[in-house]
Fold:
Amino acid sequence: MDPAAPHLDLVLRRLACVLVGATTTIAVHLATVAIGGPLRKRAIVAGAGAVTGWLVFCASSVVVFYLIDPVSPSMNLREAFLTYLLQFSWVFAAWLSAYLAMHALLDLARERERTAAAHLMAQEAQLNMLRYQLNPHFLFNTLNAISSLVLDRRNDEAETMLLRLSRFLRHTVDSDSSHMSTLGVEMAVQREYLQIEKARFGERLTVSCDVPESLRDCLAPSLLLHPIVENAIKHAVAQSDRATRLWIGAQSHGDRLLLFVEDDGPGLAGTDCRQGIGWRNTRERLDTLYGAHATMRVSAGRKGGVRVELELPLERAQ
Structure:
């Protein structure tokens, strides 16, 4: 008999067990990835899978080494199974630790990538906003309104409008829209913008702001509401001959912050909210900043217009 045959037989048996172990760990990985979710949830799935794989591996070792041509006839199956459980427990424990550490590192890398993408998107949003604010049509309407006030010798009002325009444009230039801003500051900026638009539309535009004092220190991405407010002016106020009311507000529900912009204009009839640049950019910005922890909803308003709701985690300024 070839002296190497017994050794080859043991190698083949061990190889069969290794294939079983590899198959189980691959199955655990696929199940963990398919489940997804927070790291804690994936750790539970991976842990349960590792224990199952450990038991399957030990059972396969017993079958290969003790049911098929036993290598140690003096040991019964129960003893063999317990021996393998103790012998290979550290292997699966080490694999599980390394696997979860890999997931944690990947999560950290993805979070860093998300932060970098959020910064780039915020910069792009700020540049897009600046292009709009410096758009000749916007400046023409604003300066024309100021000119009319001057011709009517309403110099104090003209000066006020110039100061509002200056403050609003300065905020768009100075603010880093990748950072967070308090609701108090955001509402002040939107009021400046809306006062400028009110010079164009006069009594056709009425604005109501409902942000409780207790929420004014809550944080939100800088200028997050502006594209929504701008859309309301463009599609509700500018396209209607009657007086239009605009509501801007904030509410809290536990650890969630709800921001909303609503109007009583023409509504959603004949429009597709998915095509709006402002709405689409806001959705993408929320997704990049918060992932699944923030939502945006567009629906019919209480009085026939459009209501846009942004829901995000409630955070307060330190």
In short: The radius of gyration is 32 Å. The helical segments are 5-35, 39-67, 77-133, 136-151, 155-174, 183-201, 226-237, 277-290. The chain has eight helices and seven strands.
